[in-house]
Specification:
Blueprint (H helix, E strand, L loop, with lengths): L7 E5 L4 H16 L4 E5 H6 L1 H17 L1 H13 L15 H11 L3 E4 L2 H12 L6 E5 L16 E4 L2 H9 L7 E3 L14 H8 L8 E4 L9 H8 L9 H5 L15 H7 L2 E4 L3 H9 L4 E4 L5 H12 L2 E4 L2 H13 L1 H14 L4 H11 L10
Parallel strand pairs: 1-2, 1-3, 3-4, 4-5, 5-6, 7-8, 8-9, 9-10
Length: about 375
Amino acid sequence: MSAAPPRVLVLTASYGSGHNRVAATLAAEFRRAGAPVRVVDHFHDLVHPEFDRLTRGLYYAVLRRAPVLWGIAYWLGDQLSVSSPLLMGINSLGTRRLAGLLAADRPDHVVSVHPTPVAALSQLRSRGVPIPSHTTVFTDFVAHTQWIHGHLDRYCVPAEEIARDLTARGVPRDRVVVTGIPVGQEFTEASERAQARLALGLSPRLPVLLLMDGSGGGFGRLEEAARTLLRMEEPLPRLSKLAAGRESRVKIFGYVDNVRQLMAAADFLVTKAGGLTVAEALAAELPMICFGSLPGQESRNERFAAMAGVALVAGSGAQLERVIRAVLRDPVLLRNMRERVRLYRRPRAATQIVGLVLAGQGVARERAS
C-alpha cells in the first residue's frame, strides 16, 4: 500500500484580502500536488466569529478615517518584542482551539500567512505541545517583528533584502528561503500585450495606464489619480461620472478577477502598495507608480519597491502628474524599470513553497549575496 499523502493546514486571517488570497493560492497548489488541505481563519474559527467581525470592522474604520493611527500601531508593533506585555496577550489568542484542532486533524504540515497564528503556534511549541512542521509565508515586503518567532521551521520571504533583514534580527539564515509572495497560477503563463488589449477593447498604439485600488475599495486615492490623469480640477463623487464623455480614454471596472489580463495590457500600474498587488505586478513584469499607499505595511512595501527600482512614488496629485509625464516621455526609464522588475519577479512562488513543504525539507541553505 502506498503512503497516504501528507495533510496540510493553512492558517490565515481576514484583515485585508491579501492574506486570504495567498492562502487560497497555496491551497489550490497543494491540491494540484495531491495533498489534502484545510484553510482556517484564525480569528473567525479559532477565536470567535464576533471577535473577528468587531476587530475587522475597527481595523477598516481606522484605515478609512485615521490611517495615521494604524501607521503608529504598526510601527510600535515593530519595536516591541513578541513577548512584550504591551501586546496584551494578542499572541496567545486562539491557542486553546488551535491546540484542539491540531490534535483532532493531525496535519503533517502547517503553513501560516498571517502573524497571529504564527505567534500562537510558537506559543504552543514553547509549552511543549507537539507542533508539526511549520512554515510561515510573508505577505508583505517587510521583516516586521511580529512575524518573527523562535519556534518556526521555515520563513518564506519575498526578496533577498527581506532575508537579510531577518538574519540581522537573529534568524538563522538556513531557516529563510527567498520564494516570493504566492500569486495565482495565471501569472506563471505568458500573456501577450496585443492580445490582452484586443480582448479589452484598448488601442494597440496608445499608452495604457492601469489604476488599481484595494479589493475593498475606498482605501486608496484612485479617484484623485484619475482626476489627475484627466487634468480635471473639480472633484467628482464617482469614477463613472468622472469618465463620462471620455469612454474612449477611460474604462471603469469594479472588483475583477482578470487582474492578470489587465496587467498584461498596461504599460505601467498606478496603485497603492499592497503586498500582493506589488507581487502580482512583479510577476506580470509591470512597472509601478505608488500613489495613495496607507501608513504601515503599505508604506513599507512602497519603500521597498522604490529602493528596488521597480516603482516610482508620488505623494500628491501634482507629483503624480509629473511622474506619469516622465514615464511616458522617457522610454529608457520604463525599460530600465522593467529590467529591475525581472530581477524580483517570482511567479512560481506557490509551487516552490508547496514543494518545500511536501518534501519535508529543512530550508534551502541560500546565502545572502
